[in-house]
Amino acid sequence: MLVGAPSRSVSRDLAEEHLSELGRLTDTAGGRVVGALMQKVDSPHPRFYVGEGKAQELAALVEDREANLVIFDEELSPAQGKSLEELLGVRVMDRSELILDIFATRARSREARMQVELAQLQYLLPRLRRMWSHLSRIRGGIGLRGPGETQLETDRRLIGHRIGDLRRKLEDVARARAVQRKSREGSYRAALVGYTNAGKSSLLRALSGSELFVEDRLFATLDSATRSVDLGAGYEILVTDTVGFIRKLPHHLVASFRSTLEEAREADVLLHVIDASHPDWEEQYEVVLEVLSDLDLTVRDKILVFNKMDRLTSDEVESMRARVRAFDPTPAVFVSALDQGALEALRATLRARVRARLPRVVVRIPSSDGEAIATVYREGEVVERLDEELKVALTARVPVGVLGRLSGRAGVVVEEVA
Ligand SMILES: Nc1nc2c(ncn2[C@@H]2O[C@H](COP(=O)(O)OP(=O)(O)OP(=O)(O)O)[C@@H](O)[C@H]2O)c(=O)[nH]1
Ligand SMILES: [Mg+2]
Fold this sequence. Notes:
The chain is an alpha/beta fold.
């Protein structure tokens, strides 16, 4: 049973959308939604979050639909969780706990698993008493009504140790990652970031041609993955796929995933992927900006990548382009992961970025070597041409690989300029 209790300032449509997102999260976690309840709440009730009357209504609904789990979209205090469980007689969790649960079941790599466990333990610590009473209820029976204070203290201490242990291990992994990143220095790097389900993995799959896990569920990707991407015209870059963001991402989780997102921090450009076909893409876009700023991910260069354009009609495409131009000056491209032709816009934008960072050189080529001259024009960016007596001097930005090929030709001289 889902419960939404947004503040009055949230519009009806948006509140519905938030509840349907909670339903998708529940589905991802393997649950089945049997009903939903909503009440606008400006000052949460200290015991039930929603009003007392609504809580009674919820209890009746839970019984009627035989729900065995109640999920709140809002964050519950440990006390509210406890009172609600007492009233409803079933397990109660909030959105944070649900997201933690999804991450826990989906994390694959050792690092992701440690990050999730750390976030879960930090969430658990202040709620230990309630968890214990919940466990003892499952076991039932007199004499198992929950641990004495000593047991609780022991558990707190054990969890504290484990948290310290995980932190240390994660720091080791982070150091190893830093070394690995260092070895990639020199390559141009881009990182895909964005709301969950926007199509980040699909884009990287389409760009790189390599297999990546894609699914129409939230949080398909939890680990960063880096692939090399051929942009054409001799340009190759590294692109990293990252974990998706979501509204009200639990704070502990954001903190734990910091190191996974280091890849994004050191990227030369952030590709902020937006699902253009989502009715609330603007809210999702805002959420991503917030999480990025929480993470201090302020990479200077950014490109907005509007994805899933194949789902829009041509009229919608036009109005979308106009709207985007009006509200964000960040360069934007409009693509579809399902359409290689449309992806060319992104490839071209990235090629221009890489080119801007290429070494500036003067290449002197015998006037008779038309092929070499054409190569520089085609694969580099010529800024100046001087026709000398027997040679042509081209000042240009040229990929290193191309320079290597050129300097092997008779009479060609390459000279680097500042
Ligand atoms: N129609 C259409 N569907 C797309 C496009 N790109 C992705 N999808 C679908 O959208 C869903 C989510 O795609 P993913 O690539 O897994 O999205 P993601 O951003 O990596 O999601 P997370 O890893 O969960 O953060 C999948 O069902 C994709 O097939 C697109 O351009 N057009
Ligand atoms: Mg993904």
